[in-house]
Amino acid sequence: MDDRDALIAALPKAELHIHIEGSLEPEMMFQLAARNGLGLPYADVAALRAAYAFTRLQDFLDLYYQGMQVLRREQDYFDLAMAYFRRSARQGLGYAEIFFDPQGHTSRGVAFATVLGGLMRAQAVARAELGIGSRLIMCILRHLDEADAERTLDLALAHRDAIVGIGLDSSEVGHPPAKFRRVFRRAREAGFRLVAHAGEEGPPAYVWEALDLLGVERIDHGNRALEDAALVQRIARDRVPVTVCPLSNLRLCVVGDLAAHPLKRMLDLGLCATVNSDDPAYFGGYVGDNFRAAAAALPLGADDLARLARNGFEASFAAEAEKAAMLAEFDRRVGRS
Ligand code: ADE
Ligand code: ZN
Questions:
Q1: How far apart, in whole angstroms, are the C-alpha atoms of residue 52 and residue 56?
Q2: Domain range list for the chain
Q3: Which of 21, 97, 172, 200 is catalytic?
Q4: pLDDT of residue 3
Q5: Per-residue pLDDT for 1 more than 70?
Q6: Euclidean distance between the first and final Cα of the chain, in Å?
Q7: Pocket around ligand 1 at a 6 A CB cut-off
Q8: Across the beta sheet with 273-275, what order do the strands follow?
Q9: At a CB cut-off of 8 Å and minimum separation 6, what does 1 contact?
């Protein structure tokens, strides 16, 4: 282990961009399929893993929506989230903001309360047994229509206290943020924190729309924002965090090579960048793995790595007192501020 790997292992981490359905490991997919009496179109785990060869976002999304169909019962969602928390705990996770995609479940007849109940029960166990704090962010699937998004927001409003924020994910190109300006306005009026995937495959204009039309407080991914100098200035000036996902970007061919990844450039431009796993079961790594892969490919010094980890806590939607306590603990353990 080199010095940076030792530092990465020791850093407390907050991850703000993790789709819980994307933490469904192939082994668990087979277990849940068997438990629920369902078949899978793959002979075994190896065949399923072999299918994880993506050239763009949509290739992945097709398998992601297919894979989540094994999730049926409250216990399935609990088991999924607990597996995520336990694996991430071993990589230094202290806090997580977890995306979930209710339309991927309600469209199959699984009740919103079933999904939420399992996730919330896991959150409580993670807090009590692993010391991991967490919040839930409900994502709207942008390839579906506005009316479906409005109905899904109504479901979230019925569980207002369980959900800290609303996000926007799924197929980006052709589904600009503007499509959801009314839903996001209603979400903002209800007091939800707002985020959106933008600039993963979509152009800088989608990042502008996410900021100016939706009023989001963080940008998920944001890679392509770097193509627009005025946009970079805006994100730096307003300290809009970007939740960056190195292994995801590699596996979805957003970058050809991790050595060409913009993470270091983002820091050097003064952006509040954070490191995240996105869909760890599909992209080959949890949050610590993402730090390690980025550090192996990019000239990230110890200060950069500590800054990235600290940014995760700083950019979180935790209550102010909880955030202050996590940052104080971070500074005590890492020895810099
Ligand atoms: N849903 C799950 N992962 C996603 C990603 N990386 N981009 C858009 N939608 C997603
Ligand atoms: Zn994502």
A1: 11
A2: 3-316
A3: 200
A4: 86
A5: no
A6: 25
A7: 19, 22, 57, 64, 169-170, 197, 200, 248, 278-279
A8: 13-19, 93-100, 133-141, 165-169, 193-198, 218-221, 242-244, 273-275
A9: 9
Structure confidence at residue 276 as a pLDDT band (50, 70, 90): very high
Query: Amino acid identity of 73?
Result: R
Could you confirm whether 27 is annotated as catalytic? no
Q: Is the pTM of this model over 0.70?
A: yes
Task: Tell me the CA–centroid distance for residue 59 and ligand 2, in Å.
Answer: 14
Superfamily (CATH) of domain 3-316: Metal-dependent hydrolases (3.20.20.140)
206: tokens are: 């989608």
Q: Which atom of ligand 1 is nearest to the CA of 19?
A: 2
CA distance 142 to 162: 22
